[in-house]
């Protein structure tokens, strides 16, 4: 019997006998590569293991066919007694092993899969923290990775070894977020990543491990694998609602709700079609799982569900979503749009900017999608006629026909000038939108038999026509206006307003029993910018009044801007332009015209509303709210303009008065100067006359007299016309002379005090100081004369 057979049979006496006879049997291997020590460890034969370890030549570094040492096998077998025995023996040889070159300590030896004894302990059947602690005390490294990049902590997390994982997490230097070679962290492994190949029997233990990991500060919940996915993503992929609930209960959602790729967990769940998981995510705080959140591709969870045609998930997300249909409308994605609309998405839902899907589709010029949305009863309100044309690439010479059936479905067509037709009265309502006068000339309202011509509006006048047919079956209505015409204030400073003709027309079909069925309008013709079908004739007229109100407000806004330019012009001219006063007076006249035109239009509109209600049997009191609002808003603007013009007139009048006063004052000053000059000139002229009169006929006397008179007269005229300049020049001369005199006063010991006092006095202010300066000049002149006389006397005495 060989030694391996003896160990399998548990015969310690046979083993001892074989070892005594041939010590070579101590490290011999069987067919599987096991040494006697490995086999005894696997069989749990404690006495035989003790016997073998007592042998001096026992090889503790021996590896089996898989690269496992006896220590690794003991760790995986979970036999405490044998494991402690091996470790105690290992302590004795540890010092010897550590002193050998190229010998790695056995406790960290790796098998052919790269796994250490600590890793074997982590995925063993038991959850033995004490045995793990013994390995750690012997220097086992918890951060060593196997061939797949997993650590002992990773194995413990994946296999749900809570006690071992908890012990490893307490070790200094352990890295809980290290990625294995598949890119998973230990939290991902425990949570059940797709690459981790989670086994159902580990699920309960994994839950305990995940719960432990989520309580650790070292764990990065938002850590991502190589594909940018978090642990929470793997949970969503595995549809593990129990694990997700664990994350929620631990408040561990946070930034892990979205990976670096921008895919939210909700979008992943929606894409996979897991309605239970979607429902659970929607119950969470929406800052983490908002259904409107978009990934890096700009897609929402509902977008993914619609693309994958997960009808149940679509029905769950539609009440929570507010952006996906708008995204599809902007993209022009007709197929997915129909998927959402068929599932019950509100075709008229507004986004955060108040836009409906059809408005978005019109702006992006997706004509086919626009027709689809109209088919699903999209509301066309607030879309203009020009936007309809732009969406389909049509020109203004074509009329836009918007037709609506009784079930509220609609469609658009574009027709030429001669293509107007009457829709089916009972089943359809049409609005024809026209942009050119040439199209309006072909409108079949009123009946050509009616000898009236209301289609040619007068400038600035609201014209209306109610033309019933001879049998009383219907009434044709036309409202026209050519406005504004020659009304703008201050046109010389800005571009004039567009002069446009605006008209609407419709037909009222009278009911045979108006008390039961009200009259209806099957067709509308409009030159207004609005592109939706009105509710009835009253609503149509309200559109007209609203447009008229906009024209008035635009006119008043431009007028106010022009008057601001008037104000700047007034400030620059400073009351020196008589023409400005005339222009302001013209502006005041136009304000009065505006008020008269407004009153006429309000009166005509009020009369039309009253007549319409009476003749069309609406059985309703006249609704004048729109007309009154139009009157109030425009009238207040005109009042403001009128006040601005009055203020400008008052300022201009005051400024002109000041300017005229200054001119009169200057003229008076010139006259005064002329008077002063005349005072000196007349005596001179009188003397000259006396001198020249005796010999006035003598040419030698007359010629100098005439020349002298002309020169004096020219000087007088020049001084009168340049009084300000002369006065200014004289003032500068006096100022320079005064500075020199004051300087001399300060240098004179008798006048020094006065000089210091008068050097800073304003020279343009009349003051007694100027007389002191004159006194100094006179005294200095007198002293100069006396000094000269004294020097002359001294000179004579010396001679």
Question: Which runs of at least 5 residues are low in confidence (pLDDT < 50)?
Answer: 90-104, 194-202, 448-455, 492-499
Biggest β-sheet strands, sense, barrel:
7 strands, mixed
Strand content: 5-15%
Average pLDDT, rounded to a whole number, is 78
Q: How does the overall form come out from the CA principal axes?
A: flat
How is the largest sheet built, in terms of strand order? 2-1-3-7-6-5-4
Distance between the termini: 174 Å
Instruction: Give the class from helix and strand content and strand pairing.
Output: alpha+beta
The count of strands amounts to 7
Rg, rounded, reads 55 Å
Helix tally? Answer: 32
- Helix fraction, binned, reads 40-55%
Description:
With 799 residues, the protein is α+β, with helices and mostly antiparallel strands. Among the domains are: 443-662, no CATH class; 727-798, no CATH class. It has helices at residues 3-8, 12-21, 36-43, 46-53, 70-77, 80-98, 117-122, 129-137, 152-158, 162-169, 186-191, 203-214, 231-237, 241-249, 265-272, 275-282, 286-289, 301-307, 311-317, 324-331, 334-342, 357-363, 367-375, 385-392, 437-440, 537-573, 578-615, 625-692, 699-721, 723-747, 752-758, 768-798; strands at 399-405, 410-415, 428-433, 463-468, 474-483, 500-509, 523-526. The model is unreliable at 90-104, 194-202, 448-455 and 492-499 (pLDDT under 50).
